[in-house]
Amino acid sequence: MNLPFVVFDVALGTLALRSLAVVRTKAPWTALGWAGTLGYCATAAAAFSRSAPPPGFMLWADAFLVLAAGAWVTAAIKREPRAEPWWWPVRLEATGAPKR
Q1: Helix (H) and strand (E) counts in the chain
Q2: Residue 83 pLDDT class (50, 70, 90 cuts)
């Protein structure tokens, strides 16, 4: 068991759930990025909580990581609004465009 990784994954998964609640359908690629992050955190926490995860289990974590990365890149290109503040989201930013 690797307790620091489990604690980190649970904390990041909680942040992903909160961000999904804020973003919902207003920013679909951002929501998909958070869903991929949540999937990664759940599978990685389950894998790190055991001394030997089942064979092929980390492939699921890798697949969620690739999904999250692709969705985050697409959301950045489309300049979708993000949930803010980053440490505990409560609202969407006004726009995804850079502030001047």
Answers
A1: 3, 2
A2: confident
